[in-house]
Amino acid sequence: MSVSARIEDYMETIFAIEITGREATVTDIANTLGVAKATVVAAVRRLVAASMVTHEKYGLLELTEAGRERALKIYRRHEHLTFFFSNILGFERERAECMACAMEHEMDETADGRILGFVDYFLNSRREGKPWVRELLITMGDERKLPRPLSMIPVGGRGTVSRVTASGVLRERLFSLGFVPGVPVLCRKAAPLGDPLSIEVRGSEIALRKTEAASVWISPCNEELPEGGEEKSHVSDCRDA
Fold this sequence. Notes:
Layout: H1 5-18, H2 26-33, H3 37-49, E1 53-55, E2 61-63, H4 65-88, H5 93-104, H6 109-127, H7 131-140, E3 148-149, E4 158-164, H8 168-176, E5 184-190, E6 197-201, E7 204-208, H9 210-213, E8 216-220
Antiparallel strand pairs: 1-2, 3-8, 4-5, 4-8, 5-6, 6-7
Helix pairs in contact: 1-2, 1-4, 2-3, 4-5, 4-6
């Protein structure tokens, strides 16, 4: 019998209780997960049927060897995802826990390993005082520096192309027009109804529909032209931003 992501939460809870030196009970699990005892009993029945848990009637719950091995993987994944969201990305612990719970069941071993490898590399680099770590943390903490679709850049806003997410013919067209990663752009104006946009790239003005511009992601510059300001091109300013 397969075990769903929700049922895996019960295994993880039993494991978390066991490693504190206590023995899990239906009441413990219900209190920890904030559910009714009847809900726990139904989940336990499924775990027993899947040979993940043993449970004597009205007695204690215990993970089988197969259950403990699987629960350990889930627990480990939850803990390092929580650490990633809280200690690396800076979210509050409670929020980090919620995001970890949402992700842990959807990840495979490859995804798990890559995030774990990134966290380890990041921590080693931070201990060694690598300058890119500080730059990364500053960027993550400043929403104005984060990439966004070109269609969200205001008139007078400028930045550099970060990536192009379109595929096929549209991707080829955007590249041919000059929207290549690292190239500076300036949003010069928009049509009366906001579509199309007039974008300056590599010395030329290009008209793009907003649906097309949504595929071009821009890293904004620190400064933007004021609304209704001078239309003199400042695209070159982004090269050193």
